[in-house]
Amino acid sequence: MSTKPSTIRDVETAETRIYEGGQWRDAQGARTFQVFDPATEMPLASVADATPDDALAALNSAVAAQRDWARTAPRVRSEILRRAFDAVTARTEEFAALITLEMGKPLAEARAEVAYSAEFLRWFGEEAVRSTGRFGTAPDGRTRLLVGKFPVGPTLLITPWNFPLAMAARKIAPAIAAGCTMVLKPAALTPLTSLLLTRVLADAGLPPGVLNVIPTSSAAQTVSAIITDPRLRKVSFTGSTEVGRRLLGQSATHVLRTSMELGGNAPFLVFDDADIDAAVDGAIVAKLRNMGQACTAANRFLVHESVVEEFTDKLTDRMAALVVGPGIDPDTHIGPLIDEVSRRKVHDLVLDAVEHGAVVRTGGAPLPSPGHFYPPTVLADVDPGSCLLREEIFGPVAPIIRFETEPEAIAMANSTEYGLAAYAYTRDTARGLRLMEQLETGMLGLNVGVVSNPAAPFGGVKQSGLGREGGLEGIEEYLETRYTAVGDPYA
Ligand code: NAP
Question: Does the Cβ of 35 fall within 6 Å of ligand 1?
Answer without folding.
Answer: no
